[in-house]
Amino acid sequence: MNIKKIWRDPVWSKVIAGVLLMVITAIVSVIRSSYSETESFMDVLNTVLGVKINLWLALAVVLIVWIVVSIVKQKKNKKNSIPQVPFVNGFTEGDYQRMKWKWRWKWNKSLNIYDLTDLNLVCPLCNEGVLTIGYMNYRCGKCGVEINYRELNVNHDAVKTQILEDAKRNYSSYEDFIGEVN
Ligand SMILES: [Zn+2]
């Protein structure tokens, strides 16, 4: 944690303010007690704060607050962070229904899973571009070739289901993060 972050934190700014108040009070009382013989350091401190302060108790409270805040923040960060899973980079293309396909895994914040998205056929001619479905044809975004969609005879939904199945089988320890067909 850096100082700026700690200061912006509502709990920590109060703790720091409290400690600063104690330090200032102590300094003031030291100056005052040097002028007055009747008032001791602790007397002044007690008068100002209205309570007897045990330094060890104060330190213990600060330490406990620090630990609690750290644990809560750690849990919060864990919940908000996106899990790093190997299939996001390791399983983004494959052969299905005699054709090559490409896709992406997109993190779904509300469901806590990776959705399968941007599933596209790879152009069989240039092997680089993806095919977009037009009126009667697929068209490659790269080389521009047009292919009648009856010629390819593929089913996107079936391929999507199969990819999800394969992902769950090959990355079984990350199964909970693999999206369902919607
Ligand atoms: Zn092409």
* Total number of distinct structural domains: 2
The protein's oligomeric status is: single chain
Main β-sheet description: 6 strands, antiparallel
List the uncertain runs.
none
The molecules bound to the chains, other than polymers, are: zinc ion
What is the alpha-carbon Rg in Å?
32 Å
Strand content: 15-25%
Structural class of the secondary structure composition? Answer: alpha+beta
Succession of helices and strands = HHHHHEEEEEEHH
* Terminal residue distance: 41 Å
Strand order of the largest sheet: 1-2-3-4-5-6
**Annotation, overall tally of beta strands:** 6
Question: How does the overall form come out from the CA principal axes?
Answer: rod-shaped
| Average pLDDT metric | 84
Helix tally equals: 7
Provide the helix percentage: 40-55%
Structural features, described:
By secondary structure, this protein is α+β, with helices and mostly antiparallel strands. The chain has two domains: 3-80; 87-177, no CATH class. It contains seven helices and six strands, in the order H-H-H-H-H-E-E-E-E-E-E-H-H. It has helices at residues 3-8, 10-35, 41-49, 55-80, 87-90, 149-152, 156-170, and strands at 93-96, 99-108, 113-122, 130-133, 137-140, 146-148. A hairpin with a 2-residue loop joins strand 1 (93-96) and strand 2. The model has no long low-confidence stretch (mean pLDDT 84). Residues 123, 125-126, 129, 140, 142-143, 145 line the site of zinc ion.
